[in-house]
Design the sequence.
């Protein structure tokens, strides 16, 4: 198939493009390099050095013989989006291209507005391009488990059968997200479902949990193919950060009691989920939702797992939680859709965590220690007075 990967220079987009290319799909990537700009803004860099997109693409050609086409531009530029869709003529588009850090979206008004504008408008431009150029294109959109929040009932895959005053309907699952970033994904989901209903778009919304890991079977074939690995308190995600903190000999930063529970998955499962979704498209007019996660852990359990696995002393600190989130809650998520398509999950074993220690050790001198502790708070972004 011809597959266009939006956000193909990012942590997940790049290894996904390699996996699709390696699976025989004609693959193109698109990115505006905003993510590299956030690094400069925050004074940090990926723990593992990454090449620029042209070098990556050339290295992949050298290693595999496969060609990946690269487009540089912004999804918020509608003319550019239309041009790429007309030129590449994708059968599927995988959409990773959003500002994806909850803390970044909570820095202040400007960052909240940027996040929602970038994410919602970019997706809207894309929906229009698909609807006007070729509505048969299957749109595979990265959503997030955080769209649901932590409701006190089971989390279904996107939809909920509701009985109210004796009548029944199938409704989009109610959302209770925890940041302006997570809210942007909710807005996207609603827009996309509307596009399916009104224009007959075919969409798969993948509500993904927190991803961990850094290597995939393709990225390890050459150091120039490495994907980014974030450690800072804004873009670094919980398990990756705990592994990095353990190797650096820094305390693991559990926010609050650590009773908050999240769905997680291995980066190797992310890329495989995308392949499965692409190769098994949604029907015309269908808004299909999968919960893309394989296991749930509380933050305290994740810290304990990392501390137990690391071959040395590890200190676990409980910091005052900079976020506003439920410290203890019910969490039971249905996630059978992707397994039904053939996903064989890599569950979090000691082997994976252990394999991350040497990656961190090799590059630990690149860490800006000042960026490890959280500085963005959920209420601190309001400039009152
Ligand atoms: P990332 O920031 O590394 O990658 C996103 C890429 O999109 C970046 O390269 C960025 O430059 C690009 N981009 C952003 N806005 C753009 C625009 N307007 N036009 C063109 N390109 C643009 O993020 P990631 O960790 O690879 O996440 C990818 C997607 O998966 C995001 O949508 C995120 O919400 C979702 N997701 C990520 C995780 C995770 O743990 N990393 C978990 C669940 C969902
Ligand atoms: N946490 C800590 N200590 C840390 C970092 C995080 O206790 O040092 C806690 C947070 O308070 C939160 C949980 O760990 O309760 C997860 O935080 P995170 O930063 O790992 O993940 P999150 O902000 O939810 O965002 C990440 C990605 C985002 C994606 C989301 C999936 O950045 O793009 O959408 O995971 S989900 O969490 O399912 O919404």
Sequence:
């Amino acid at each position: 198939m011809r597959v266009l990967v939006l956000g193909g220079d990012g942590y997940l987009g790049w290894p996904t493009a390699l996996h699709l290319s390696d699976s025989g799909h004609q693959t193109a990537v698109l990115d505006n390099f905003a993510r590299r700009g956030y690094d400069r803004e925050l004074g940090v860099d990926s723990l593992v050095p990454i090449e620029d997109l042209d070098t990556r693409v050339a290295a992949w050609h050298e290693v595999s013989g496969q060609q990946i086409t690269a487009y540089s531009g912004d999804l918020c530029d509608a003319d550019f989006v239309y041009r790429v869709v007309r030129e590449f003529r994708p059968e599927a588009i995988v959409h990773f291209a959003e500002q994806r850090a909850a803390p970044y979206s909570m820095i202040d008004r400007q960052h909240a507005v940027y996040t929602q504008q970038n994410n919602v408008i970019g997706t809207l431009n894309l929906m229009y391009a698909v609807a006007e150029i070729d509505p048969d294109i299957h749109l595979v959109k990265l959503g997030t488990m955080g769209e649901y929040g932590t409701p006190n009932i089971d989390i279904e895959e996107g939809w909920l059968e509701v009985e109210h005053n004796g009548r029944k309907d199938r409704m989009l699952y109610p959302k209770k997200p925890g940041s302006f970033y997570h809210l942007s994904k909710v807005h996207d989901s609603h827009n996309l479902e509307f596009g399916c209903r009104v224009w007959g778009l075919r969409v798969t919304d993948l509500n993904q949990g927190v991803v961990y890991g850094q290597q995939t079977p393709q990225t390890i074939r050459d150091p120039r193919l490495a994907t980014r690995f974030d450690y800072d308190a804004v873009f670094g995600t919980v398990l990756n950060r705990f592994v990095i903190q353990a190797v650096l000999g820094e305390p693991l930063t559990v926010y609050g009691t650590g009773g908050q529970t999240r769905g997680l998955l291995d980066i190797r499962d992310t890329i495989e989920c995308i392949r499965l979704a692409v190769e098994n498209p949604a029907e015309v007019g269908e808004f299909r939702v999968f919960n893309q996660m394989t296991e749930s852990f509380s933050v305290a359990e994740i810290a304990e797992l990392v501390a137990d696995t690391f071959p040395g002393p590890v200190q676990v600190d409980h910091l005052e939680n900079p976020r506003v989130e439920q410290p203890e809650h019910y969490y039971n998520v249905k996630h059978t859709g992707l397994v039904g398509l053939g996903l064989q999950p890599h569950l979090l074993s000691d082997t994976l965590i252990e394999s991350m220690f040497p990656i961190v050790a090799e590059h630990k001198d690149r860490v800006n220690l000042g960026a490890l502790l959280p500085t963005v708070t959920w209420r601190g972004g309001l400039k009152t007075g």
Q: What stands out?
A: The chain has a mean pLDDT of 97. The pocket of nicotinamide-adenine-dinucleotide (ligand 1) is lined by residues 7, 9-13, 31-35, 74-76, 96-100, 118, 122, 142, 144, 208, 210-211, 228, 237 (CB under 6 Å). The longest helix spans residues 109-133. The chain is about 35% helix and 20% strand.
